[in-house]
Structures are given as C-alpha cells and as structure tokens.
Amino acid sequence: MSVSESENKTQHATLQYKLGALLDKHTDLIKTPQGQFPFSLWQTLAKTHLLTPLLPQSLNGQNATYTEVARAAETLAQKTGLPGLTMAWVMQQLLTRVIASSPSEDVQTRYLPPLLSGESLCCLCISEPDVGAHPKYLSTEAVRDGDTYLLNGEKTYITNGPYASVFIVLAITRVDAGRKSFSAFIIPRDTPGFSTTPLKGFHALQPTAHCQVKLDNCRVPLDYRVGTLNDAFESISKPFRELEDILMLCPIAGSVRALIENITRENQTALPLEDLGQMLAMADTLSTIGVLAAEELDEISNPELKVSFIITSKLMVEQFNTKIKNYLGNTPLGDTVTALANDIDILVNIAKYANTAKQKARAARYLKK
C-alpha cells in the first residue's frame, strides 16, 4: 500500500470523515420545521455510533478524544449551516456522560437508553430568571426529606428543554456563612411539580429550542442526585462551561465558513476580495485555534492556554461579525445569511460574564508575578 493510499484509508476512518459522509447521505434529515427537533437524524447518528462518540463503546460511543469531537463538530456546523444543531450534538455528549454516572439503577434503565439511541434529549438547568448563572444569586433549593430530596425554584434559558425527557438541575443544598453550595439532581420531565414554559422572544440557534422551568415541591429519590454532594458548581457547572466553550470553537469556525459560502453563493461580489480573503484567513485561524484548544483538553498541559484560546477566538469572531453586519445593513442577503450571522453572534456572547471573569483572573495572575 502506498503512502497516499494509507493516508486516504486513515482519513476515511476518522470521526470527522464518517460524520461528514453521513450528513452528505442524509441531507433530508437535517432541516426540520421550526419547533421540531430532527430526531430522525439523531437516531441515524446513534445507529452508526456517531451520536455520542465521546462516550465509551459500552455507551454506544467510540472513546473519541476531545480533538476528534471538535474536528467533527466543525464539519457538522459547516455542512449544515446550523450552529444550534452542532451545539446540541456537543452538549448531549457532555450531559449524557453526567447522566451515565448516576448511581440510580432506575435512571440507568429508564432514562439513559433513550438518550443513547437518539430518541430523547437531556439538558442542564443552571441559570435563573433575572440573575443568570452567577452562583451568588441563584436561589433554587433542594432540601433532604427522609429518603428523598424536595426541590423548589425556577430556571431559565434551558437549551432543548422543550424536547428533553430528563433535566440536570443545580440546586442549593448547603449555605455556610452566606456561601452557597450546590448539588446536581436528575429530574425526569414527568416528575410531579415539574413544569416548563416556552421562552418568549428567543428563536435563534434552530433547531434547538429554549424554555423556562419551574420546580414546585419536586420530589426525587436520594440516588437521583448525581456527582459529589455540595460540589456541583465546581465539579459539573464549571467544567461543563469550559468544555462547551472550547469544543464550540471549531464549530464556530465551521459556521463562519458556512456563512461565507452562503454569502458568496447568493452574491459573489457582495464582499470585496480583500475582505473575503481576510475572512477566509480568519476562519482558518479559528479552526486551528479550536483544534489546539481541544488538544489542551486531551493533554491537560497548560490551563492558561485554554483561556487564551477562548478569549482570542471570541474577539476574532466579534470582529468578523461586525464586518458581516455592516454588509448586511447595506446589502440584504436573505433570511438564511441573517439567521446564521445572528447565531454566530449569540454563540460568541454565551457566558460572556464568565469569560470576562477569566480575563480579569488571567490579568491578576500576571500582575502578581
């Protein structure tokens, strides 16, 4: 076998290639009417072990690395032009891994299998109305009552909440000298006292949908708590935020490429050649940074670099989107381009407070040297 043949065979075996090939074959499964999630695509991905590749083979995964998932997510975003769909694919892998760690046999047998087969979704509930996700201001509580926990409170901006069958809810389980500690609980949708309402005025990141959640004396068994007691913000919320931030860098690059492709398809002269060349170079750089950041997750070598990659990438995309908005203001290019540009803008601004805090912390560490 020649070197080129060997390289070609290796390429065809990659997660990125397999996912791209499946998307090319099943284009009819990608787009769905507003208000519907593409579960047919999800189930097709599951049948080919492409829905949760980050998970072990025993959980219908491929033991993929973060780098492999990041590269594949970039392909998903570029081929579909749907950053919301890509975000859902990344999030479901991270959250299903949390569900899979549950000590509850009931959770393992009733709620995990539909997630692995693509028949259902799960979601994470942290943010609350008017206060966001800052732990100082969160108020949802979980109180132990015999062999159960009783949860009360409200959550908002729940990604895929309208479609989910199971929710991971962060709630206060201890307050010590004014400092709140949180635990995570698995709440099935059919739990008495649990209800959702649509999030009005937010229709971006299709085909995902968002909602608010109300917990009114929701009672769950003790073993529906997942992770370490009183440590969920540190062990679940913060790691999830970092993983999502980094694993979405490559998809943002893919979304930028999809946006450029859509613009030039509609009007090849819409962008001056100098600006188009700059945007293409920016997409290449974003992709490279995204891969490097994912490699840092796999190797755990330099925590400072991960923060730098996130900050720099988002600054670059903000500059890109400013240019795009200027063009759209002067040359309307259709709903698809407008929606995609808006989705990219929203992705860049997710967790802006947390990323600003990281920038300040980075600066403070530098000044202490």
Number of strands: 8
Number of helices: 12
Tell me the major beta sheet.
Answer: 4 strands, mixed
- How large is the radius of gyration? 21 Å
CATH topology call of the largest domain: Butyryl-CoA Dehydrogenase, subunit A, domain 3
Q: Provide the succession of SSEs.
A: HHHHHHEEEEEEEEHHHHHH
The helicity comes to: 40-55%
In terms of DSSP E residues, the strand content is 15-25%
**Tally of separate domains:** 3
CATH class of the largest domain: Mainly Alpha
* Name of the CATH architecture of the largest domain: Up-down Bundle
The rough form would be described as globular
> What does the average pLDDT come to?
90
Give a description of the structure:
The chain has 3 domains: 3-116, Orthogonal Bundle (Butyryl-Coa Dehydrogenase, subunit A, domain 1), CATH 1.10.540; 122-233, Butyryl-CoA Dehydrogenase, subunit A, domain 2; 236-368, Butyryl-CoA Dehydrogenase, subunit A, domain 3 (Up-down Bundle). Helices cover 53% and strands 17% of the residues. It has 12 helices and 8 strands. The strands form 2 sheets. Strands 1-4-5-8 form a 4-stranded mixed β-sheet, with helices on one face. It has a 4-stranded antiparallel β-sheet with strand order 2-3-7-6, with no helix packed on it. Helix 4 (66-80) runs antiparallel to helix 5 (83-100). It is globular.
